[in-house]
Amino acid sequence: MSHEPFCSSCEITLNILCNLEQNMPFCHFSPVRTLSDISPSLIDELKQWWLTNADADGDGRISKEELRDFLKRQGYWFTSNRTGQFFKHNDFNHNGVIDDDRELTALVEFGLRNLKMKIVKM
Asked: How many structural domains does the chain have?
């Protein structure tokens, strides 16, 4: 599975990783695990990456179903549980979609901490 850079100016690529048991690719670089390790401009690019990849209908919002379907396409298991937990704790305005800056930031952090997403310099 190849990964296209989403930040060509700094040549950083986002690798979405699952457990090795799921036969997904594994990266030997050390991961970034918290938002404090990332520049604000990169956080903005990661938010855009999520919208570009998970917002299936292109309305600028990510629904629970869109997030679940995106995670399934990436090979994650228990996607209903993962998305349910994410929305329970991070849908701050309780409208059923990820649509504001604070929620998108939470989604970036969720990816880093819970989905084993890694940002590596290529």
From this structure: 1
